[in-house]
Prior knowledge:
This protein has 238 residues and is mainly α. The protein has helices at 6-16, 22-34, 41-64, 84-92, 96-113, 117-126, 130-138, 143-170, 173-185, 197-222, 230-236.
Amino acid sequence: MRRCLPLFLLPVLILxxxxxxxxxxxxxxxGQITGSGGPDEETMxxxxxxxxxxxxxxxxxxxxxxDGYFRNLDIRIPVPEKLDxxxxxxxxxxxxxxxxxxILGMNRAAETAAPQAADIxxxxxxxxxxxxxxxIVKDGETAATDYFRxxxxxxxxxxxxxxxxxxxxxxxxxxxxxxxxxxxxxxxLVEDVGIDLEGYVTEEALGGLFFMVGEEEKNIxxxxxxxxxxxxxxxxxx
Length: 238
């Protein structure tokens, strides 16, 4: 075995760099590298990809269920900023129920679209190169999430938008939006407002999804309990 460090240290840094005890873990792995019996390079890279597969799967699963967006205050889709004034005024006028229906509909549409991400994330992991892995190690605690954002955002947006467009109409969010905006625009002396509803919900849905991928990545880096497969235990158990 060649006594070199870079690729052997990749999964350590991915799964343990942010952990206060990571120095001891590095020492243990260093002993394996300079000695014998440690996982080979191919196994170590496979362990990195396994960790990312698990993290993205967990993230997609968490937002794809009913209330996956709506009950998660970190990613719940709010009324568009352009409609903030309209929301406040309409609630004061006793029309809060219409606003709430609109918010719920946007989040239901995002939950419907989210499963589309699973296969795209899997493909991005499969195509990951050694150079990609090195960059992920060097660039911080959500570097893998940033990698996914760069590699998958355009494809995800193209997949999400038609699903969200259909879902917004099906759950009544389009009608709710029209009622909210129509009621506001009918108020004397206010400036008419309007937005690209499908575009807004698509962007917010992807933002929430990537936030959850980032949370999973940080968890994998920090928590040994996240090593839930035989491969991960083989690679990172020591």
